[in-house]
Amino acid sequence: MKSKRNLIGFLVSLPGVLWLTVFFLIPYLIIILYSFLTSGTYGGVELPLTLAAYTRMLGNAGYWQILWKTVWISLVSTVICLGIGLPTAYFIATSKRSNILLTLVIVPFWTNFLVRVFGWMVILGRNGVINSFLQLIGFDSPLMLMYTPGSVILVIVYMYLPYMILPLYSAIEKFDFRLIEAAMDLGAKRTEAIIKVLVPSIKGGIIAGIILVFIPALGSYAIPDLVGGTDGAMLGNLIAKQLTVARNWPSSSAISMIFLLISTLGLLVYMRMNKVQSKRRLTIRESYMNEEEI
Amino acid sequence: MKEHSVVLSNVTKIFDDSFTAVDNVSLNIEQGEFFSLLGPSGCGKTTILRMIAGFEDPSSGNITLGGKNIIGTPPNEREVNTVFQNYALFPHLNVFENIAFSLRLRREPENQVKRKVMEMIDLTRLSGHVEKMPSQLSGGQKQRVAIARALVGRPTVLLLDEPLAALDAKLRQHMLVELDTIHDEVGITFIYVTHDQSEAMSISDHVAVMNEGEVIQLGTPFEVYESPVNAFVANFIGETNFFTGKVARVENEYFLLDTGRFGKIWFYKDMDVSEGQEIQVSLRPEKVKITREKPIVPEGVKLNVLEGVVDETIYLGSQTKYTVAIGQSHMKAFKQHVRYLLDEVIISWKDNVYVWWFADDSYVLREMGGVPLEE
Hints:
The complex is a heterodimer of chains A (294) and B (375).
Chain A: H1 2-35, E1 38-39, E2 45-46, H2 52-58, H3 61-94, H4 98-106, H5 113-124, H6 129-136, H7 149-174, H8 178-185, H9 190-201, H10 203-218, H11 222-228, H12 235-244, H13 249-289
Antiparallel strand pairs in A: 1-2
Chain B: E1 4-15, E2 19-30, E3 34-38, H1 45-53, E4 60-65, E5 68-69, E6 80-83, H2 95-105, H3 110-123, H4 139-151, E7 157-161, H5 169-186, E8 189-194, H6 197-203, E9 206-211, E10 214-219, H7 221-226, H8 231-236, E11 241-251, E12 254-258, E13 264-268, E14 278-283, E15 289-291, E16 303-315, E17 319-326, E18 329-336, E19 352-358, E20 363-364, E21 367-368, E22 371-372
Parallel strand pairs in B: 3-8, 3-9, 6-7, 7-8
Antiparallel strand pairs in B: 1-2, 1-4, 4-5, 9-10, 11-12, 11-14, 12-13, 14-20, 15-19, 16-17, 16-19, 17-18, 21-22
Helix pairs in contact in B: 2-3, 2-4, 3-4
């Protein structure tokens, strides 16, 4: 009986396991392998195994700079998304027209990602909408709005904000607002009640939102490529450059590994927090078992 | 005279300019008393509670707390705490921190917080659950945490919004006794909202019976049970028999009512009535005796005796509830079983019986059809 169930479980999960093995695990193993190989004279990779790609990168101040910039651009974007997303999600969840508002949040997804980035280029560009307007009202020299870390952050926030709002919305929507009343009844001001009761209750949604924004932001390629210029280049652009211009496969693989390391660290933090929660959930279930006592 | 802790003067609450939830209610709730607002759901009792707590403002009228007008004072600045119907415990905090919530907001020193919380834990008998999360508690325990959390900040008034509604009958009885004990111990005003008349009757000093936004009757549990002002109160609080008709004759302390369905019946004249007046009388079923033998009426005693057939019996162990068919009508009679197996011959379904009661045991309803009769 039990072995039969195990067999069914195995068969059901087989397609997924195969898919992930072929298209995820094996490619990653290849990248790990490449990162320890020597760059071939005409592109590609050759033996011997070496740490050269890593030492070269870690020894180069320029790499560190881009790595650091990638992390802080992603962090700042995530914080801004959270700052905008939390009140927005709160407003949507408490609104009577939450369905319409939710649709409005999702509407931008109907337009192609690249088209939307180009849209920002039209707005921010040297002869873009903003600068044209500024010239019209009397400014002489156009502002440098594009090709800065700021423009990269702006567009990342624009792109990934819905990924912050949606999990926050679903968490707030489930929140029992009578708890806010209870907190105020016990002496809390409205803002205190929100910080002390609402925020801890929607922690899961906040963490999900942070991960959904931070990880893709770390891996940004198209956005910094189009609106970042040299000042706004991120790790993704560096990997692409190593792969296409320098044709250095080990180097780009090594950078990918560093990137993997950072995002895995983020996920580990998340999983740890989740573990604490599921452990708690387990004890809850146990306590239901011996619910007899008053 | 005791000082009034909560006074409502002509309070009206209209929602969305159309629905009148509370209609011109005035109440004086004394310092330290256990006061109940009793009524069917939607009668406005919870709205009154929410106005005292500060979650709603009255559309008109005044509410004072210890003589101070509290209209416009936000809930966090009122010395009033609430035990919510669904407990509303903070799911992310354990029992200790839930109770400590209001103290932490006031930034009281740690040792003081600890002492006060532990006092409450002793009072509500929660020791052994201090570290638990709300989701790990049973209904009764959650209830006690909610009470402890509301009491720890020493409010002058504790509001309880149907606090026992989610508990099973046995536990409800148990918690009622505990609530009473806690009330005696802390000595502050409790305002208790419930739709359950037995809850309200058993622990309240005063009960306000409400219907459709109005207070229909205010009094002690004894008064509202034995002297209901109208059919609504008589019916809502316990069960009763109604007799309606015109007064046929007045004789000393009694009057004869022509009830039509039951014929002419003698009732005690506890207010002035005149011949020909339309009157409604309430007679509680436990005051009606039921026997197989025709009772012997002693000289000078006004006893009403009716003959009928048992139509329905509900045996409850301590008593049996009989419904007796008398002609085309029915009467309820409750028989308390006071002796073990010696309780006369058991009366059962379809038996021919006599129902009888002393004319003094009924009460003339002061209001008929909502209009008060002249006394």
